[in-house]
Amino acid sequence: MIMRHLCIIMSKSVQATPAARRAAILGFLSRRNVRSQAELSGLLGARGIEVNQATLSRDLRAMGVAKGPNGYTLPAPGGAVPSDARAGLRVAASQWLLSMARAENQVVLRTTPGGAQALAFAMDNVALDGVLGTLAGDDTILVIARDARAARKIVRELESLQGARV
Description:
The chain has helices at residues 18-31, 37-46, 53-62, 85-96, 116-126, 148-163, and strands at 66-68, 71-73, 97-103, 106-111, 131-136, 140-145. The chain is an alpha+beta fold. The chain has two domains: 18-73, Winged helix-like DNA-binding domain superfamily/Winged helix DNA-binding domain (Arc Repressor Mutant, subunit A, Orthogonal Bundle); 85-163, Gyrase A, domain 2, CATH 3.30.1360. A hairpin with a 2-residue loop joins β3 and β4 (106-111). α1 packs across α4 (85-96), α1 crosses α5 (116-126) and α4 packs across α6 (148-163). Residues 1-13 have low confidence and may be disordered.
């Protein structure tokens, strides 16, 4: 006789701050195709973030997210920067950034698994001074700076954002 076990995992719903909620939205939209607000709401709910439709609509509008035929799309870097882009970077850095290492004009950032693309997107949205480009994998970001001095400045700024209270 085969016994089957059913495990139910209960997660506690939390009222996330707008910046934390938007960082989670950014993470989902940068990693997968989300076709509806109901789907996005479900993804947030699975992470323990409960949000109503009106709030979700406001978040998407404030973030510059557009809905196309294939679902939601993030704004292109260099496009309109949401007014809370710096807050989004602060949340992303404090949530996902684990470590940094600088080598000449390059900075290697280590993140939690799955956090690199969301953090790189948040960095690109803010357009940090001296950053020529970012390349993100799953848990690593390569930041190419204009020169070694700019790379040092980027590290200092990210350390400051990482330590900021959210």
